[in-house]
Amino acid sequence: MQTLGIAITGSGSAVPATFLDNQGLTELVETSDEWITTRTGIRKRRLANVGESLTDLATAAGEAAIAMAGITPQQLDLILLATSTPDDLFGSACQIQAKLGAARAVAFDMTAACSGFVFGLVTAAQFIRTGVYQNVLLIGADILSRWVDWQDRRTCVLFGDGAGAVVLQANDSDRLLGFELRSDGTQNDCLNLPYTPDATELLPGVVVGRGNFQPITMNGKEVYRFAVQQVPEVIDKALFRANLSVEEIDWLLLHQANQRILDAVAQRLNIPEQKVISNLAYYGNTSAASIPLALDEAVRQHKIKPNDIIAASGFGAGLTWGAAIFQWGR
């Protein structure tokens, strides 16, 4: 009989060695440790140096997840990289495939910004549920420091670099219990990393746009309002699909954007503080990496145990948001 369930059997993470704390930021922009901490909950963030690549971070996270799952890279059928900051605009997943030695795996990138890991989790699950693939490596990784304006105190205090990964495997029982994904392009201008063309005339009448990407811009108030309103609702919908109540959740695992958002969402859902996983004080907002990075840390600290029910939710640029309810382990 064909197996149509999925289990998340391994996790891994990797972060750069270099960190920048709030005190260091006061030398770059007019701010203070107290201002940053009270408004965001962030105390420091990891930053990739000029020689560190997204591929290296993602590969290290993937290797740790594969080892925990007890499989080899050669057993992988699919590698899915959720990122907004690839080393190569054509994609970085294939480089990771080569570094891992996962010769059998098909590999591709997908972009849904800070929602990338949740969107990737749901996407990966469909390949397993249809019986096409058995073993999938999902990586969320971003190096946002490449695209931060370090003179813009509204954004430079928020972002950090890192990678997190999970292995999904075919399983007799389905451990992805429910999900809900959403997008709203009408709010796209709230959070951007825009391409800006520079008109270049090749021949008379033949003008192309050459250029680069501008630094991250964000309307913080609008993003906060959006997250606090939409995230509890999307978690409720995912719980409904899973036929579960809020009380049955063991852990709330949100995209690590801002401690005030984490607190507000938990309060709206009546989830007690001790069930909320938070590590953004030490890493900042690592975009697609934030959920798997926090998940891996909690698993390795033995906070998250087999069969625990986790409500995970990502939200960010697009605007995109979504929630997935899953049980850890087989």
Automatic annotation (TrEMBL):
Domain of life: Bacteria
Enzyme class: transferase
Catalytic activity: 3-methylbutanoyl-CoA + malonyl-[ACP] + H(+) = 5-methyl-3-oxohexanoyl-[ACP] + CO2 + CoA; (2S)-2-methylbutanoyl-CoA + malonyl-[ACP] + H(+) = (4S)-4-methyl-3-oxohexanoyl-[ACP] + CO2 + CoA; malonyl-[ACP] + acetyl-CoA + H(+) = 3-oxobutanoyl-[ACP] + CO2 + CoA; 2-methylpropanoyl-CoA + malonyl-[ACP] + H(+) = 4-methyl-3-oxopentanoyl-[ACP] + CO2 + CoA
Any one Gene Ontology molecular-function term assigned to this protein's record: 3-oxoacyl-[acyl-carrier-protein] synthase activity
Beta-ketoacyl-[acyl-carrier-protein] synthase III C-terminal domain segment(s): 240-328
Active site (record annotation): C114, H255, N285
Subcellular location: Cytoplasm
EC number from the UniProt entry: 2.3.1.180
Segments of this protein annotated with the region ACP-binding: 256-260
Role: Catalyzes the condensation reaction of fatty acid synthesis by the addition to an acyl acceptor of two carbons from malonyl-ACP. Catalyzes the first condensation reaction which initiates fatty acid synthesis and may therefore play a role in governing the total rate of fatty acid production. Possesses both acetoacetyl-ACP synthase and acetyl transacylase activities. Its substrate specificity determines the biosynthesis of branched-chain and/or straight-chain of fatty acids.
Family: Belongs to the thiolase-like superfamily. FabH family.
Subunit structure: Homodimer.
Protein name, UniProt field: Beta-ketoacyl-[acyl-carrier-protein] synthase III
Organism, scientific name: Fischerella muscicola CCMEE 5323
Origin organism lineage: Bacteria, Bacillati, Cyanobacteriota, Cyanophyceae, Nostocales
Record gene name: fabH
